[in-house]
UniProtKB/TrEMBL annotation:
Domain of life assignment: Bacteria
Species annotation: Paenimyroides marinum
Alphabetical list of SUPFAM superfamilies matching this protein: Bet v1-like
This protein's name: SRPBCC domain-containing protein
Matches recorded under Gene3D superfamilies: 3.30.530.20
Length: 150
């Protein structure tokens, strides 16, 4: 897997960035910034450590798909670690097989570091090589969208 990192500084306290990014008070804030990846992007589940969470959207044919993940760590306002272990295809969870193996065990980590009322948000992402260019193009746009919510 390839490791990517994205950083942005948001003019807001870490607690506000954390809550907005994860959509804790209003899921629409999560859906707003992740719409850069898929206009129907959302999640099912919760952000508690050890919880299963599905990151989902529908494709151009209305088929529901996405990632099956676990919240590996959640330190409020500081750090969130998401571990992928499966795919969702047409509403069915797939947790084994060659298609899953390329993604399984990959992490997406969010670090929030507050300094003088502004927060440096760092995203560390494991991705398969075929998606690296996509994430390099879209993740900065998604973070700009998140920034625009403040």
């Amino acid at each position: 897997m390839e490791k990517l990192q994205f950083k942005t500084i948001i003019n807001a306290p870490a607690a506000k960035v954390y809550h907005t990014m994860l959509g804790l008070s209003d899921k629409a804030t999560y859906e707003a910034w992740t719409s850069e990846f898929n206009p129907t992007s959302t999640y099912e589940g919760n952000w508690e450590k050890g919880s299963k969470i599905l990151f989902i959207g529908t494709d151009e044919n209305g088929v529901k798909g996405g990632m099956v993940s676990e919240i590996a760590e959640n330190i409020p306002n500081k750090f969130v670690s998401i571990r992928s272990y499966g795919l969702l295809k047409d509403g069915v969870e797939i947790t084994e097989g060659s298609e899953v193996e390329q993604w399984a065990g990959g992490f997406e980590n969010y670090s929030f570091e507050e300094n003088n009322g502004a927060t440096t948000l760092t995203v560390d992402l494991d991705t398969v090589e075929t998606y690296a260019d996509y994430f390099k193009e879209v993740y900065p746009k998604a973070l700009d969208k998140l920034k625009s919510l403040f």
